[in-house]
Amino acid sequence: MKHLFKYSRPYLLHCFVYCVLMCSCADKEIINSKELPDDIHSLENLLENDPLEVDQKMAVYYELSKKHRTDHLELADSYTDKLISLSEQVKSKYFLARGHYMKGMIGKEKGNYQQAVNHYIISSDLFDKLNDELWNADALNNIGDIFYNIQGYDLALPYLQKASTIY
């Protein structure tokens, strides 16, 4: 039994150190967005009634823009503008990239394809700097999809090819 304890102790220490390192490397912005309530009313109450840290406020703006995008484009657009403005002030590439991605989605749904492409390009560049390949590929794919849908096939192809190499 003593022999078993001798080997498990370094293993436990290794596991503890690994857990501490993983927690310290976790993206605080991602953690905060997972801790938010799911419903719109509760999210809006957070903005009105709770003193939020900046990263939490950006996470709430992002969640509200996502939730309003299907039914209230103007409201989603307003929350996205607030997200982009705040993320520029505090230099949060994480939320800035997601804000521009959301503006691309909103622009596409409004039929403003030039605006959508511009925002997707900005988000793609930011996702690339963040080494977030999946979001980058999605942004590039969305650009290609817009060009494809407006019959700009020659413009669509490079974006779709680049997205497929990243995927």
Automatic annotation (TrEMBL):
InterPro entries registered for this protein in UniProt: TPR-like_helical_dom_sf, TPR_rpt
Highest taxon above the source species: Bacteria
Name of the protein: Tetratricopeptide repeat protein
Originating species: Fulvivirga sediminis
